[in-house]
Amino acid sequence: MESNSIKYHFTGCFFDQEVVLELASRYGDMRLSRIITCPHVTLDYKPGGISEELLGEEVLFRIIGYGNDGKNEGFKVELCEASDELIRLYNNVDVPHITISVADNSFAKYTSKIRFVTLSNPEYISGRFAVMMGVLPDEYDKIAYSVKDVSDIKNRLNL
Question: Is 3.90.1740.10 the CATH number for 7-156?
Answer without folding.
Answer: yes
